């Protein structure tokens, strides 16, 4: 095996160091496999209950009336999330679109949206109107309030209570820390927060941004009181096979509002041809539990490897996981750049490219991105990125298979080693 790795550019020192780290992770990995097993059974059960058939894999064209596969897939998602209804569509273009859809369909002028967990994901700033943008909620007279987490990551219950008023119609809770430094929320903590909010005002619609969280636990936010739960199919639930799409699951009335907005009032879920995409949606969902498990193992391996080398890693090597994102703080640009180049050159696609930092629109520093993916921009596939500014942290996620995640991380270490930022004894 080491010979094979050597042919793939991995030195014997990196191989040996990686094996030592992995020896300490056996129990952790067993727990992940057990969770994947449970989630796999949940997915199969939902497919069997709804009688997924060969006919479901055929698509429709044109208006897409009576699209058996599309309608059945939405029932599968609803059952899997223990929700009343679901909207799972290729016409939902990405995660941001799904979140914008859920918000805009259920808020009306004069309503207020509250985030009780601090600043939402970057792209939502323009949806909400925190940053000026055409067509934002703000432009439609929908106001926004935010209560930050306390310095130790706890909910600020006192100020959340104060922030809820007669206008508060909807609450948005982001499960994953995204590119922030706060801890990711467990499903149980999300449940606690929702109970607290509903006790103050029972008719508030609680929406959870579930991106990167699906199948990391054996529960999803709709099982602990979330009224709507939203995500992207080019992350966990698409299993790497879905080439586009988003999902919204939750209460029937709220999903209906989403469908009326996605297509048209009066038409709702009845239209929207699935074309030829359903096999990838079904098979991707079927694979999602084990794909997510592979990504999780990669994140935990990277955390322990780089922690051992003296770098700050978030989450740390021991913490429990509620999403698949791992960050490593290098403290210097060379660390971020070499890490990303190592990930890129370990990819099945575009491995021969050398990625460089560039001036990406919307960012205040140069950003470097590594993604040698089959689906463009897919972040359930092995991928990494980082802004070239202090603290020089890289964000890493994905890996469709554990062996690829492992090789990618070993290759990143090889690149970091070659960049000369490790001490001579680091790998001994
Ligand atoms: C990825 C992500 C989004 C946005 O999804 P896109 O598909 O990139 O538009 C929103 N919220 C969180 C937490 C995410 O991770």
Structural summary, described in words:
The chain has 428 residues and is α/β, with parallel strands linked by helices. It folds into 2 domains: 2-40 and 286-427, Methioning gamme-lyase, C-terminal domain (Aspartate Aminotransferase, domain 1), CATH 3.90.1150.60; 59-275, 3-Layer(aba) Sandwich (Aspartate Aminotransferase, domain 2). It is 39% helix and 13% strand. Helix 10 (278-308) crosses helix 12 and helix 11 crosses helix 12. It starts with a helix and ends in a 10-residue tail after the last helix. The structure holds pyridoxal-5'-phosphate (PLP). Pyridoxal-5'-phosphate (PLP) binds at residues 94-96, 99, 121, 123, 174, 176, 178, 209, 211-212, 232.
What is the beta-strand fraction?
Answer: 5-15%
The spatial strand order of the largest sheet comes to 1-7-6-5-4-2-3
Order of helices and strands: HHHHEHEHEHEHEEEHHEEHEEEH
Largest sheet descriptor: 7 strands, mixed
Estimate the global geometry from the Cα principal axes: globular
The level of helicity is 25-40%
Number of beta-strand segments: 12
Alpha-carbon distance between the two ends:
20 Å
Computed over alpha carbons, the radius of gyration is: 22 Å
* Quaternary organisation: single chain
Question: What structural category characterises the helix and strand content?
Answer: alpha/beta
Q: Superfamily at the CATH H level of the largest domain?
A: Type I PLP-dependent aspartate aminotransferase-like (Major domain)
Mind telling me which CATH architecture of the largest domain this is? 3-Layer(aba) Sandwich
